[in-house]
Amino acid sequence: MKNWILGLCMTLLSFQLLAFPLEIENKFGVTKLSKQPVRIVSVGVSDQDDLLALGIKPLATREWYGNQPYAVWPWAQDELGDAKPVVLKGTSYDYEQIASLKPDLIVGVSSGMTLREYEQLSTIAPTLAQSSEYPDWMMPWNEKHRMIGQAVGLEAQAEQNVQNIVERLNDVKAAHPEFKGKTAVVAFYYNKQPGAYASKDLRSKFLTELGFVIPEQFDQLAGSAFYASFSEERLNLLETDVLIWLGEEKDIDSASTSAFRKRMPFHREGREYFTGNIVGGAFSFYSPLSINYLIDEMVPEIAKIIGNN
Fold it and tell me: Record's Pfam families (predicted)?
């Protein structure tokens, strides 16, 4: 038995090594890797989740928001373990800091980096930007995970991770046929304006994968963007079977929109769900690790709303 396991491990290792050298096309060019990378820096705002889901602990992570330890949220902390990556802060890159880590791969699929930033990072190490097939921030989670998995030589594991999540989403959908065809939208309140996400946004994709429908009006309002803002007087646009607010109810109540919201049927009939900070973070990350967290935390609450109306 031991010899069989050893042989299997050697076969898998050989398969991974045969994947290199490799080239991966990205929106700015081609990421060329001569060997399997070991020293990996994550400059994407959520790419640390993909790496951790593959068993890789990056040398550095990038702070997005939330002030979480090492920029790693609760759903990924077990995978981080006792590792203590450097946290890259700010909206611009500290190239000297990144170079000092001596990476052999820089992962920035969820970074929204510019061509100039890509070229500068590429002088430090091979840099993985997102695919050219999608606007910034809109690369589907499964394709993003496969791309990162390929770059680090763990393509088969990435595919298995994707299939595990797809199966779980399908199981949830089958267990909740009442979701099918119901309307839903993810809303927010920012800069003194309410707004909602279009169907192309990753948060909306989660709802549609469960059977919900995002009303077309949000796509029309958003145009080429992935979200749309509007005035408080138009809160009736959010009249759906389930209204999901990013954040805490107290944050919405303290906003000037509160008086308008309390007159809306979705409020009076209890069709609102407030994500809070952690579930809201999982929604925004929408990664292989955070999707499982979303299923555990959000789906039961959505089911209650549908069941009560």
Answer: Peripla_BP_2 (PF01497)
CA–CA separation, 72 vs 77, rounded Å?
6
pTM across the whole model: 0.89
Q: How many CA atoms lie less than 13 Å away from 68 in the CB half-sphere?
A: 22
Check residue 247 and report its DSSP letter: B
d(CA 308, CA 66): 32
How many CA within 13 A on the CB side of residue 163? 6
Would you place residue 216 in the very low, low, confident or very high pLDDT band (cuts 50, 70, 90)? very high
Is 225 in contact with 198 (CB distance < 8 Å)?
A: yes
Spatial strand order in the sheet of 60-62? 86-88, 60-62, 40-42, 105-108, 127-129
Q: Verify cis geometry, omega within 30 degrees of 0, for the bond prior to 21.
A: yes
- Is the Cα torsion angle 119, 125, 126, 128 positive or negative in sign? negative
Dist. CA 104–CA 279, nearest whole Å: 33
Local structure of residue 103 (DSSP, 8 states): -
How many other C-beta atoms are found inside a 10 Å radius of the C-beta of residue 268? 9
Average pLDDT, the chain: 92
pLDDT in tens, 165-190: 999 999 999 999 999 999 999 999 98
Place of tokens 């952690």: 278
Q: Tell which residue, 273, 185, 192, 179, has the closest CA to residue 237.
A: 185
Give the helix ranges, DSSP H, for 152-211: 155-175, 202-209
Domains and CATH numbers, the chain: 15-156 (3.40.50.1980), 177-307 (3.40.50.1980)
